[in-house]
């Protein structure tokens, strides 16, 4: 593919930066720039999406990327991921157990009553999609009073530190295959350092989808839900909360908590099939987890995880079961980059196309006697 130099290109590019910044600040002289904390808290679901797709847990830089990209989630994720590539890797965490998650939301559609109880948390699932016109002219006083009112009468001490897993009950009844402890100790595939050469292990698929673009994951998972697949999932448990991050102590080597990250985790139960030794049928599972509060992404990821496992056990019968189709098309930064590269100069290649077309037309005209 050929490209050519453009005279005056550097000056023009500087001009695009200036006008792009002008459009961000054109509210007027009295307008205040949006702050990183405002983006993180008032646009928290947008922020969580960029945090997840950027592939690095740094809330403040995710806010900066959103501000810099003026709300373009793909561009913001691109900026954040580009920054991640410049950072050194100092250590690796211990294997994290999501049973230790500090829960802010926890539901199950498989059971009405679950150990520890349903915890609806922050969601719009049960709201009417009506415009709240009062938010157009929300006063600062009313806005600041919201947090104080929410804590009124709330006994935080009554909230347990951890909640049991719904799947533990199914395993206890023998309805799920037991955990494979040997598989849990395997070194996960590092998609940031190793190229994906198919077939790839499940850890590579999960890592790719964890930082995949939410819309892409949803679209392919939706194709499975609508009939181009056979997963038919039930959400055993959906969790949102803060997961402690453990690193070895530099002196003693013992695991120590260095902070926490917000994650969304989804475990789905799908149709049953024979277990690995073929002795009895058990439910199959799909798993999804990603940074931030991203429920649609985690559910879509769990559906595709189950679908890809089906495709690995049998020949893929639809796109959502094909690892190459799914994993090479869900990364938003990759797909955006390929799409936007068509805006770059293609003068040489298009000139060649025109020359070939003119030559073909002349040959056809001579054959037709025109």
Give the gist of this structure.
The chain has 370 residues and is α+β, with helices and mostly antiparallel strands.
Please supply descriptive tags for the structure shown above.
single chain; 370 residues; alpha+beta; 2 domains; 4-stranded antiparallel sheet; globular
Describe this structure in words.
It is globular and about 85 Å long. Helix 10 packs across helix 11. The protein folds into 2 domains: 9-84, no CATH class; 98-336, no CATH class. A hairpin with a 6-residue loop joins strand 2 (234-248) and strand 3 (255-274). It is built from 14 helices and 4 strands. A 4-stranded antiparallel β-sheet has the order 1-2-3-4. Helices cover 42% and strands 14% of the residues. It has 370 residues and is α+β, with helices and mostly antiparallel strands.
Q: Let me know the number of strands.
A: 4
The unreliable regions are none
CA(first)-CA(last) distance: 34 Å
3D shape: globular
* Order of adjacent strands in the largest pleated sheet: 1-2-3-4
Number of helices: 14
Strand content: 5-15%
Helix content: 40-55%
Spell out the blueprint of helices and strands:
Elements: H1 9-25, H2 36-42, H3 44-54, H4 59-68, H5 73-84, E1 102-107, H6 140-151, H7 166-172, H8 181-184, H9 202-210, H10 214-225, E2 234-248, E3 255-274, E4 281-291, H11 295-313, H12 323-327, H13 332-340, H14 347-368
Antiparallel strand pairs: 1-2, 2-3, 3-4
Helix pairs in contact: 2-3, 2-4, 3-4, 3-5, 4-5, 9-11, 10-11
